[in-house]
Amino acid sequence: MIRIGIGHDTHRLQEGLPLWIGGLKIPHSHGCVAHSDGDVLLHALIDALLGAAALGDIGEWFPDTDPAWQGADSARLLEQVLQELHIRKYRIINVDAIVFTQKPKLSPLKPAIRERISSLLQLPPECVNVKAKTGELVGPIGREEAISAQVAVLVDSAT
Ligand code: MG
Questions:
Q1: pLDDT confidence band for 159 (50 / 70 / 90)
Q2: Of 4, 5, 35, 74, which residue is most buried, by most CB within 10 angstroms?
Q3: 159 CA distance to ligand 1 centroid (A)?
Q4: Whole-angstrom distance, CA of residue 138 vs CA of residue 152
Q5: In which band, very low, low, confident or very high, does the pLDDT at 77 lie, cut at 50, 70 and 90?
Q6: Can you tell me whether residue 43 is helix, strand or coil?
Q7: Percentage of the residues of the chain whose pLDDT score is greater than 70
Q8: Which tens digit of pLDDT belongs to each residue from 110-120?
Q9: How far is the CA of 89 from the centre of ligand 1 (A)?
Q10: Any idea of the CA torsion for 106, 16, 35, 136, to the nearest 10 degrees?
Q11: Separation of 41 CA from ligand 1 center, angstroms?
Q12: Which residues have their alpha-adjacent CB atom under 5 A from ion ligand 1?
């Protein structure tokens, strides 16, 4: 059976913090305020995968009140979620993602982010798409106060 999942995440930006997007450290003056590494794209991806498998959301699996996830590498959280899907015999068909940032400009980084996501998911690159949008200089994204991401996934279940 084919199932769909969606995910969304937003993090506030603060000067001097590292910026992680899609499992890559992106050179920038600001990074995300978060309990974990604040990777909006991986968090939205995790939520999309959990959604497709009807397994709740990232906050239930990795509570931000739990010191275990302090500064956590989101790629490791994703690995754990992939393991849960694998146990339940779900196979990912494709992933489509959008990252919203005014700065840094993500278009030159899209191929690297796509490659990293496809490697984390062990999917061929043609099954992963990454889009970049600005905030058109308005709202929290446009004012460079925050970045966000949206992800849609399709999975196939053997049962
Ligand atoms: Mg998050």
A1: low
A2: 74
A3: 31
A4: 25
A5: very high
A6: helix
A7: 99
A8: 999 999 999 99
A9: 26
A10: -40
A11: 8
A12: 9, 43
* Token pair 């794209």: residue: 41
Cα–ligand 1 centroid distance for 33 (angstroms): 9
The residue among 116, 22, 7, 97 whose CA lies nearest residue 52 is: 7
Q: Torsions phi, psi of 77, nearest 5?
A: -65, -40
Question: Do β-strands 146-157 and 2-15 pair in parallel, antiparallel, or remain unpaired?
Answer: antiparallel
E-strand spans in 16-102?
19-21, 24-26, 30-32, 90-100
Nearest alpha-carbon partner for 45 in 69, 14, 23: 23
Q: 88: which 2 tokens?
A: 């339940």
pTM of the entire predicted model = 0.97
Q: pLDDT value at position 71?
A: 82
Q: How much distance in Å is there from the Cα of 9 to the middle of ligand 1? A: 5
* Residue 137 DSSP code: T
DSSP states of 3-55: EEEEEEEEEEEEETS-EEETTEEEP-SEEE--SS---HHHHHHHHHHHHHTT-
Give the distance (Å) from ligand 1 centre to CA of residue 86.
23
The CA 158 to ligand 1 mean position distance, Å, reads 30
